[in-house]
Write a structure and sequence with these properties.
This protein is mainly beta. It has one domain: Lipocalin (Beta Barrel). The chain is built from two helices and ten strands, in the order αβββββαβββββ. The chain has helices at residues 2-21, 81-87, and strands spanning 24-25, 32-39, 42-48, 51-56, 66-72, 100-110, 116-124, 127-140, 143-153, 168-181. A hairpin with a 2-residue loop joins strand 2 (32-39) and strand 3 (42-48). The two termini are 29 Å apart.
Length: 184
């Protein structure tokens, strides 16, 4: 009887471990990706409204975590149709030529206060930069939430019309909360 219980416990542990480690799609309806930039000295917060992604994260093996986020650059919504049309132009996101930005993370490294640092690459407008992104992970029965923020240079990705140099600052803060439903 003990042998049956041990075999059953081993099988259940293996199944639950694989549920954590399985690659799962993010839930965009419960996720947000927002850019915060300064225009004429005033902070502007604008979301990307369309994105997809996948996460593979076993809490017991954070170094093996992987994630891919594809962001529709034309979905950047400043809240004004004229500004939205402006940022889709070649001088800004050039959404016709570069319809998406992609962040690919490979591994989580434990950091202070139970948070992590994700190593990854951001590809945007034909350029790629390696980034270290601070991430807070929260998990419950419904799923896992990955949140954080990072600062990037828009000029590093050739984003911005030179005519706007005195209007829009170079640094942009990307804030995110990515939700991944629990495996069922």
């Amino acid at each position: 009887m003990k042998l049956i219980h041990a075999a059953l416990a081993t099988a259940l542990f293996s199944i639950s471990g694989s549920l954590f480690a399985a690659e799962r799609a993010i839930d965009p309806a419960k996720s947000t990706i927002t850019a915060v930039f300064t225009q004429i000295g005033v902070p502007v917060e604008a979301p990307f409204t369309k994105f997809t992604g996948r996460v593979n994260h076993d809490p017991a093996k954070p170094a093996d975590a992987k994630a891919v986020l594809d962001i529709d650059t034309a979905s950047f919504d400043i809240g004004d149709d004229d500004y939205n049309a402006e940022v889709r132009k070649p001088e800004w996101f050039d959404t016709a030529k570069y319809p998406k930005a992609t962040f690919t993370a490979t591994g989580l490294t434990p950091a202070a206060n139970g948070s992590f640092t994700a190593a990854g690459k951001l590809s945007l407008k034909g350029r790629t930069a390696e980034l270290k992104v601070p991430v807070t992970v929260k998990a419950d029965a419904a799923g896992s939430s990955y949140s954080g923020k990072l600062i990037i240079s828009r000029k590093a990705f050739s984003i911005g019309d030179p005519a706007w140099e005195d209007t829009v600052e170079d640094t942009v803060t990307i804030q995110f909360r990515i939700f991944v439903p629990a495996a069922r």
